[in-house]
Amino acid sequence: MPDSLTTRESECVHLAGQGLEDKEIAARLGISPRTVGNHLHRAYAKLGVSDRKLAARRLSIAYSEASVLIPNAPLHPSDQPVSAGLPGDAETDGSSSWLLPAPPRGVLVRLGLVIAGSALALLFAIGIVTAGMVVPTLFDQIAPVEAR
Fold this sequence. Notes:
By secondary structure, this protein is mainly alpha-helical. About 55% of the residues lie in helices and about 0% in strands.
C-alpha cells in the first residue's frame, strides 16, 4: 500500500474497485457516503488519477498482496479513464486509448461567451478607429471653403 494513503482511503479505494457505490461502501465501513466521497477524492489526488477504476488498478499495483482490479468490462466511451502514463494503466488488450474526460458543465458556454464578447469588443474598436479616420475627411468635405 502506498505510504501516502491512509488505511480508510485504501479501504474505500479497495471497495470502490470491487464496483461498490459510495452508499454501499459507507454502509460497510459505518461512515457517511459524503465521507466516502472525501476519502476517494483524496486517494485519487494522492494516486494521480481521476477515476475509481484507475485508483483500484494503481493500488493493486502498489499493494500486491490483494488484487482490487475490476474485470475488464466494455466501457462506454464517456467512461474511459484518463491515464497519467504510469505502468499498468494501459488496458490488457494492448490498446492505448488516451481519451480525455468531458469538460465540466458550463465551461463550453463560458468559453463561447468570452469569445463572442471578445469579437464584439474587436468590432467596436475597429469601428472607433474607422470613425476616427473617416470623420475628419467628412468635415473637410462639408465645411465651406472660406472656413478653411
